[in-house]
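fyi for ur records
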Amino acid sequence: KTLIAKGVIAKTALYHQHYLNDELFKVVYVCSNQSIAAQNLRKLKINDSDRVDNVSDTRLSMQHLRIFEDERTAKECKNYIQLIPLTPSTSFNITSGGGSVRERALIFAVLSRYPGLKECVNGLEMLMEDYATQSWKSWAKNHYEERVAECDKDSNYMQTVLARVDDYFKNDAKLLNQTIEICRRTENSNQRQEDAYNVIYRLRQMMAEISVELMDPDLVIMDEFQRFPELIKTDLNDETGIIARRFFNAPKRDNKKVKILLLSATPYKLYSTLEEINENRTDEHYQDFTQLMNFLFESDLTAKATFSKAWSNYSISLSEISISDITILHARKTEAENALYQGICRTERLSIEGADKLVDIQAAKSSLSISEKDVTSYIAAYNLLRSIGLNEHVPVDYIKSAPYIFSFMQHYKLKTKTYDYFRRNSDKLQAARKPELWINENLIAQYEKLPDTNARIKRLKDEALMPGAERLIWVPPSRPYYEAGGPFTRMKDFSKVLVFSAWEMVPRAIATLVSYEAERRTVGELIKKSPNPEKENRSYFPGIKKVRFPAPRLKFSIRDGKPANMALMTLLYPSVTLAEAYNPIEAMNSGMKRRRIESEIRCKLAAKLDLIKHNPKGNEDERWYSLAPVLLDFDKD
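which gave:
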């Protein structure tokens, strides 16, 4: 996904540079959170000189300053490609609060220069300082004042932004009057006003809209676009939708629409199953699909009309399918595909030679062994609903996807209605006690094996937890630095298991049941072999103020007012000396055995320890061991 985005950036930037003679190519990268944005932006750089904006603050209301700063920097450093990160939660969704102190400090630096607010600058500062008194006075106010002044030296930054502010206030004179009034009231009373946040919110919204007008991106990349549908819905009339539409439809320097690339590595589903429609009372997936297509073809009415007609014809042919009309259906299918290809493409990793061998799909293709309990689980759920007077159907796919479904169906309407019934009729709670529908807490408390009531989960446990796999602390490396040992010896071919499901309860069920089975085979077996297995803390659920067995082994403590178990620090301290004592690449390439590696490291450390001065007199103090890595690093920078 990231490689595809990088290729699109490179090709589009080349076109803009050679054919449109652009001095700067702007890429806006929309991502769900800042940490992912920071990670992916490094991968999206085409050249080392490409500028990547700081992801510490991606607020749209602050981008007007960055726009002018970046244009100046691009000219000075000859950077052609600029990557700008935005996150929907802080960029397009302008919350009704006061925003961040950075945001307000920048707004103050701009509006304090606006002629219409000159007479109430003191009140404006008090308004924008809000409750961030320490941050405001120690750095925020001066920081943005200096940046604004510095940016305005070599550009027409303030002239441009203040002109946009003036236009905005002319179209919304009420906002200007409210701002002046609240600034005067704040200054006169020397205290914050109740309606302060409403004015600050509207000023933040104004600066966000000004930033949208000035940003002028050449390419917008929306990563995992399903996570922010509020940007996709073309009929959304709330403030987020309005700002998003202005952003995507802002006039370009070449009078063309901005280029938009939507990315997703998540399997896309454009329809709902009957079970999903019964649960949600609507076909949400198909609605999302139509909204997506409207978004993709919004600026190309011809392509939009072509797709709508082709998709309608294909849908009609599907509903009227017969053997005699199969040729017509194929033709309409091809027509619908060609219409989709005008806005959508699918790029598979498996298109790379040899990639198909990286994933073994035989387990998913082989048939499952269905037991009687798979069937009785459905019967138990059906009978429960009938006994409490619910006319709801039990989706068969629920039963096929997870065992003990009522233990995992949080937020499902079926479980909510069942809970509501028993809250009102607690005297009939016995009717809900069906072992096929709930996990048996008593069995878990004693680390007993849970009955296999679901063929899919049983297959998953067989694949993911083959005998001995529960003892692995991590997945064995595909190319180890040295020969495996311990539980890894027989697990060279152990690998991850990839599971897909349409149901929210399935990940919860898998995480619970598979991890419990691993605990049962490790902790449970350890309890059976330990003395006094009947002790209270041997239970999965220890009593009050009891430590669950086994007690943590890597644990620091205090004895007689002094730190104890400090030898464990050698496992946590990031020693440069220890890291330099072993080069895994060299050891792997030379085929060194683990014993030889250990021997060489032992010799290196012994020689270094001999250089540390020590006092031969007095008793031997074992605390030196925990301090050794620190002492070895004394001569490191």
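The chain has a mean pLDDT of 86. thats all i got for now
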